Amino acid sequence: MLKTLEKYKKYVLVIGGSMLMVAFLMPTALSQMAGDPRKRVAAYLGKEKILEGELATAHREFSAVQRMAPLLVMNLGLRDDLHWFLMTTDAKRAGMVGAETDGEMFLREMTELVVLQIAQARYRQMAEFMLQQAEVRRQLFEEAERALPNMALSARRETGLGEIEFYRALAKLRGVLRLQAAFMQAGRLSDRRLQDASRNLQEFARVDAVVVPATRLAERVDDPTDEQLAEHFARYRDVRPGTGENGIGYLQPDRVKIAWLFVDHLAVSDAVRIDPVEANKRWRKENPTRAPDEFAKDRPAIEAAMRTEKVASIMAQIDKIWRAQVMASIRRLEADGPYKRLPEDWDKTRPSLESIALGIVDGVRAAAEVSIPMPAVVIREASWLTARDIERIPGIGRSLVTVANRTIPAWEAIYSVRELLPGTTQSPPMGTPVQVGVPVADLHSVDASQNRYYFMVLDARPSSAPESLDEVREQVVRGYKAIRAFDLLREQGSMLESLAVNEGVEAVEAMFSASGEADPAVEGLQVVHDLLVSRAEVGGSDPRLKDEVMRAAVWSRAESIDPLRPITQISAEQRTFRVELPRHLALAVCQISGFEPLTIERYRQFGEQLARGEQVRELSKTINSNSAGPFSIPALTERLGFRMVRRDREDDSEPAGEPSPVESGR
């Protein structure tokens, strides 16, 4: 064998070397044959080719601007990287996008946006109020100015954009802002239309008013007979509450029955015992240069820190045990998309929350050597619960669920249950399937005290009419009496108006306050003074006074008043009137206390602002009448002639036929 190899070694070396060379060069050759994937045609804008690399750049740009200005991106309605590509292309063609220097200038002007982002993240619902505090606003501006360069650097690093590319992305964002602003300001108003709009918004009648709800007379209505109640229920059974002729309706909202397992954070903390020896070891490790007798002073803090860490570890262990036990029980079930197909006897074979609670106690004892109290099991299946009902439940009602990067109320996670979704096979809105009869493995809620709630939906019913009168009997009785009481209130309307003419609307309030005011179940009355009513809207916060019927009645009376005469010279009979509010089952007694016509000075002061507002309202009506809108993906796709290349094409030549259109839902 050796002699043979020796004889033919030259041939072996030549052939072997050639094979090694081929193996070394083959990947490069194949790559060159295949071409650079970034240079492949991905789409067309009319006849213009769009390469994969351009769409990849758009993806990085969109990620960068999202990191820098998420609020602005959201307000501009930019949905994803494709929408970004189409919008920036539209802005460039309109001449709205500047060079990278424009983006650099825009970065310096973004301090206000960063202030808003910091305020919303820090103060949440209180953000607007806190920004009105001068000192807080000054501190936030200083913080934003310090944070802005670091935010820009972080966005560049995370998206792989160079400095010039990053500034170009910001220039495109500014271009999109200019384009949409130009569109919103494109409309023009004639002088006459602006004057009419100004009169609608800037002419005011001042009104003193008191609203008398029909419920104040409900005690005068006899209890309905079974026949009357059945007839009333049949009439309003399928009507949604708050709609219809009088706001009465018994159509029930989505509702559920739930159960949950409650882990008391304080009870877990109390169950943890800190070994003094271990506490001393940790103290000596963290303080190697200090004298041993100093440990006693630091011992409470050391033990508190160790307890906090231990409790956090136990709570994490509880999460794992809960998930493991739930997954073990459903793993054998047949899949139904992201959900499970439940067997007929699932109610009998599914794991009980009590057994899971016992497993948690045993699991924590084995893993952490701590005996925690048995988690409480709460079952709410006696009656249906609406979202508002769940919010009112102490504990779980105020708890929050963390899903991805956002925090939502527990009821919202519960209401993502499959049986309440429009389609039974669509993807879970929370990313985690929630299904009737199955404990939720990957979601739990936490309240302000760090207590945890592991929940399960026992049953769910979409919005529907009540199955029987008994299901909503108390509500139906109240509704019946409210309608009859409104009839009584109408009969007293003339008397109440006369009382207001002679003694003012305060006398109406006093008459009803004299009886029934001590009963907390009876709705109180309150006189609203100097309520500003324009032709377009009613001030104040009472939704009953904002009714269109109220506004029309006020101006029907106000237009008969001479604005040049002092209001005290106008008779009380001319200024006083009553308004029936059937949708609210109430009656308003009103008296005009002043009139503010549109003056030339106010017209000049607010004319430009009113013109912009009217333009926005007009455009909003136009956009709302068009389901897509001018800057939606379908509208941009059609306007730009954007078409995606078919996936099955193997070359980048222009197709003979029409390329496949982009999916408008992307």
Which labels suit this protein?
666 residues; alpha+beta; six-stranded antiparallel β-sheet; four-stranded antiparallel β-sheet; 15 strands; 14% strand; globular; disordered C terminus
DSSP strand tally: 15
Uncertain ranges: 647-666
> How big a fraction of the residues is strand?
5-15%
Helical segment tally? 26
Largest sheet: 6 strands, antiparallel
In what order do the strands lie side by side in the largest sheet? 7-4-11-10-8-9
Question: How confident is the prediction overall: mean pLDDT?
Answer: 84
Terminal CA distance reads 67 Å
Descriptive report:
The chain is α+β, with helices and mostly antiparallel strands and 666 residues long. The chain folds into four domains: 2-34; 42-184 and 626-644, no CATH class; 204-224 and 234-246 and 472-597, no CATH class; 255-461, no CATH class. The chain is built from 26 helices and 15 strands. The chain has a six-stranded antiparallel sheet with strand order 7-4-11-10-8-9. The protein has a four-stranded antiparallel sheet with strand order 12-3-14-13. Strand 5 and strand 6 (339-341) form a beta hairpin. Helix 3 packs across helix 10.
Quick overview:
The protein is an alpha+beta fold.
Chart the SSEs and their pairings.
Blueprint: H1 2-7, H2 9-34, E1 41-45, E2 48-51, H3 52-68, H4 70-75, H5 81-93, H6 100-108, H7 111-123, H8 127-131, H9 134-159, H10 163-184, H11 191-202, E3 204-213, H12 226-236, E4 255-263, H13 265-271, H14 276-286, H15 295-330, E5 334-336, E6 339-341, H16 346-349, H17 353-368, E7 376-385, H18 387-391, E8 400-403, E9 406-409, H19 410-414, E10 445-446, E11 452-461, H20 473-491, H21 493-503, H22 505-513, E12 527-533, H23 548-558, H24 572-575, E13 576-581, E14 586-596, H25 600-625, H26 633-640, E15 642-644
Antiparallel strand pairs: 1-2, 1-15, 3-12, 3-14, 4-7, 4-11, 5-6, 8-9, 8-10, 10-11, 13-14
Helix pairs in contact: 3-5, 3-9, 3-10, 5-10, 5-26, 6-10, 7-9, 11-25, 14-15, 15-17, 21-22
